[in-house]
Amino acid sequence: MLTAMGDVMRRAYDKGWITTRDGNISLCRKNSGIMYITPSGWRKTILHPEHIMKVKITPAGCRILSKNPDIKPSGELDMHLLLQRYNKSCRAVVHLHPTNIIAAIYAGWNMQSLAAEFPEVSRYTRVGPTVPILPVTSQELATATFKAMTNSSSNIVIYDIVGQANHGVCAIGDNPWDAYEHIERLEHIAEIALRSGIKPRELEI
Ligand SMILES: [Zn+2]
Predict the structure, then answer these.
(1) Residue 131 in this model has a pLDDT that exceeds 80
(2) How much distance in Å is there from the Cα of 200 to the middle of ligand 1?
């Protein structure tokens, strides 16, 4: 599955959903307490298993287990830690910058309402509320994304994907490709909505 982390990033780059150093993925195996995460600023077109960082999730945050001092975990480490910390099963968290989703949110589309209108999405992908504009790599973005994904006080993730205004998306799946599929479905209907020329019926943000 570490290979899939690089493969998903290469596909996202080919699709134009990230520029070469953008985006990040984490992966936790079942009950391991260990998180694998993409390195900060790495060119995603040359991302392979030996570049993936290994961290131990601790009560206060995490401890880096990888030995290479030249690489650091993704700047969105806090977001990944929050979304992985309370989970016991195998889980991948994927953060990308898909063009049409960002454009649709920018145009005022409510992604949750839009997804509900398209059965190809609503049947397989639970779309959460969009996270407002917040600084990238910030604790505020991490917390707001976690709250949007859980939407409750239970720490249990109830959505597969949320948009992040003027920035990107965060998606969760059992493996990197499952999370990627949620992004692909939402990106598809975002493009349809934009191409339709119809104005958003309600302004989300
Ligand atoms: Zn980002």
Answers:
(1) yes
(2) 25
